[in-house]
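Need tokens for this chain, all 203 residues.
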Amino acid sequence: MKNPPALEQLIESLRCLPGVGPKSAQRMAYYLLQRNRKGASGLANALDIALQVVDHCKLCNTFSEQPICPLCSSEQRDKNLLCVVEMPTDLLMLENTQAYTGMYFVLMGRLSPLDGIGPKEIHLEKLIKRAQDGAFNQGPVQEVILATNYTVEGDATAHYICELLKARGIKTSRIARGMPMGGEIEYVDSGTLAQAMLERRSV
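Here are the structure tokens for all 203 residues:
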């Protein structure tokens, strides 16, 4: 016996989520339909709205409902500093430290050739242009801070970006290893992250 076609489609759609296999997707679908139809309706509505209104900021590449996100459009930010992070969650964590007041660029990933993620997939051309042109075409930034995770892929990404920027005469630095080896920014406490930002070094 098979599930109804609409249910099978829901299960298959849920499998697009990271770490969700066939059985997990089936349990989620059963739960939403049997135990929480109101929640399922809210989820569907929220997802539909997000798909319509959320895009990428033209400057920092993070998620935004406006062409230029509020952070990039703020006059309080230091336009001479550009911090490169892997994901929007990393940006939020750094903001919570209140130790950094510059601009950001979100790669939306990290180099991982085995997974088919190369320079194009993490928007490196856009990053280089952003570093050279500055915010609102004000000229090159004074420093690019590489705040990718201290993982094998994160280190490789930072090294690759560093070489690209150095070839163009742009100063680069790497956040200090106040972070544990193998640590990811999303899971580091604010105090450690603030210290890592303050003790960044040239590379």
